[in-house]
Specification:
15 strands, five-stranded mixed β-sheet, binds 6-O-phosphono-beta-D-galactopyranose, eight-stranded parallel β-barrel
């Protein structure tokens, strides 16, 4: 199937190369359950969610016990890849160094063995929002001790699982981890509009990424390594308004640019740096990016094998001069979200562009614009994978199925724009829908469903949705209808 024809030519016909990866994505904390058993150490989310009392991550979709069923489903539905993450605190319960937890270590050996038995290649992330609690509460990546500990944990995983895993990602969505914690205040120990801490934490986490990349390469491990960024194209609301253009540039640096420069340059372009300083001044603080960090990051920038892009939406920015005014729509009450940040701008909705019930803007062309931007600005990128993309819905199981035609349309439109980027010469090698099965959502709980497979959280029964059947056909034929 599709194996002799060049990718660009295939893309023009709506087809994918034979080795394209089609899969579903998961993250340890959102699927595994068994949060405080089998020797797993605490993460900050455990107490935070318990205090909030809105919803529990336990047992989520019980992946700890049911991973083989989910991999069997993946195989049956034509998928050849899966994104999973290793829970750091399942391996090192207290973070830092110390003795690894044998049960946790064994669990991931078993998981990877099951992946291979089902012909579903594991794409493994080392950190998906779940630093061990002791490190997290002690400053997380603002504290250099966490950077050291992360490198030690990464080295351990490369040595331990190197025979089973050949696709590694260091971090998932440093932007979400920092913006939600230091700007929006919706994540544990949340702060509001502390732009300098947000940007410093982004830099420090990218230093940790760089150190892990160097450890991987110097250790002679086989396979590929990269990082996953949550990217959103930032358009000025009025493309002719200078203040809106500046707001879009601010939000671009906050969400995308610092991280992309750090990834592919290893330092910050003068234009990026000027905006970083502007943002810091707006929140009355500063950042420090020592030359010794940049030297490490520049070296790693040449060695990244791939970039994972998580793309859900883009943004339209208006200039905003008032006090910060934020409301996170974590309930699915459409139209309740507000994002106005002093010194950055206002994320506005545009009439005529659809949104989900959680106010996420549906704009598939943004994925194309982002991929072209990366290919043109960072010609040293090697390979892009879409590591998350999907639609949160209040799915309902009716007569033994879920009709999620909207989700099919969403995924199909994004895949078409990804193929358009391939047609224009961008190297895109895989697509993972978020999510494989319905799972726990950090600030939304369980009514925001994303999966190919519906999960009844009482019985843990899985039911394939219409999107799963549609995706199976795409994966098996290597073409969009
Ligand atoms: C990404 C994360 C995932 C996942 C997804 C959907 O940011 O990598 O962990 O949660 O977004 O987000 P949400 O669950 O907030 O709708």
């Amino acid at each position: 199937m599709n194996d002799q024809i060049p990718a660009q030519e295939l893309a023009a016909q709506g087809r994918f190369p034979a080795d394209f990866v089609f899969g579903g994505a998961t993250a340890a904390y959102q699927v595994e359950g068994a949060c405080r058993s089998h020797g797993k150490g605490k993460v900050a989310w455990d107490d935070y969610l318990a205090e909030q009392g809105r919803f529990s991550p336990e047992p989520a979709c019980d992946f700890y016990n049911r991973y083989d069923d989910d991999l069997e489903l993946s195989e049956r539905f034509g998928m050849n890849g899966i994104r999973v993450s290793i829970a750091w605190s399942r391996i090192f319960p207290e973070g830092g160094t110390g003795e690894p937890n044998p049960e946790g270590v064994a669990f991931y050996h078993d998981l990877f063995a099951s992946c291979h038995a089902h012909g579903v290649e594991p794409y493994v992330t080392l950190h998906h929002f779940d630093s061990p609690a002791a490190l997290y509460t002690n400053g997380d990546f603002l504290n250099p001790e966490t950077i050291d500990a992360f490198e030690a944990y990464a080295r351990f995983c490369f040595d331990e699982y190197g025979d089973e895993v050949t696709h590694w990602f260091t971090f998932n969505e440093i932007a979400a981890a920092t913006i939600n914690r230091y700007v929006e205040g919706t994540w544990p120990l949340g702060k509001r509009v502390c732009l300098h801490e947000c940007l410093q934490a982004q830099h420090n986490t990218m230093l940790a990424h760089a150190r892990a990349v160097l450890a991987f390469k110097r250790g002679g491990h086989r396979g590929s390594i990269g990082v996953i960024h949550a990217l959103e194209y930032k358009y000025p609301y009025d493309p002719n308004d200078a203040a809106d253009i500046a707001a879009a540039a601010n939000d671009d640096v906050l969400q995308n640019r610092l991280l992309l420069d750090a990834t592919f340059r290893g330092d910050y372009a003068p234009g990026t740096m000027a905006i970083i300083e502007r943002l810091c001044a707006a929140s009355g603080g500063s950042v420090t990016f020592p030359e010794s960090d940049l030297a490490i990051m520049r070296e790693a920038a040449r060695l990244n094998d791939c970039l994972g892009i998580n793309y859900y939406q883009s943004r339209f920015l208006k200039a905003y001069d008032g006090e910060s005014d934020l409301h996170h729509n974590g309930t699915g009450d459409k139209g309740t979200g507000r994002w106005r940040v002093a010194g950055v701008g206002e994320r506005a909705l545009r009439p005529g562009i659809p949104t989900t019930d959680w106010d996420w803007i549906i704009y598939p062309k943004g994925l194309f614009d982002l991929m072209m931007d990366i290919a043109l600005r960072y010609p040293n990128y090697k390979e892009l994978l879409i590591t998350e993309n999907g639609m949160g819905r209040k799915d309902e199981l009716v007569d033994g199925t879920v009709d999620d035609a909207e989700r099919i349309e969403y995924v199909e439109d994004h895949l078409r724009w990804a193929l358009k980027a391939v047609e224009c010469g961008v190297n895109v090698t895989g697509y993972f829908m978020w999510s494989l099965q319905d799972q726990f959502s950090w600030t939304n709980g369980y009514n925001k469903r994303y999966g190919f497979f519906h999960v009844d959280f009482e019985t843990q029964r899985r039911t394939p949705k219409a999107s799963a059947y549609w995706f199976k056909r795409v994966a098996e034929t290597g073409r969009l209808a």
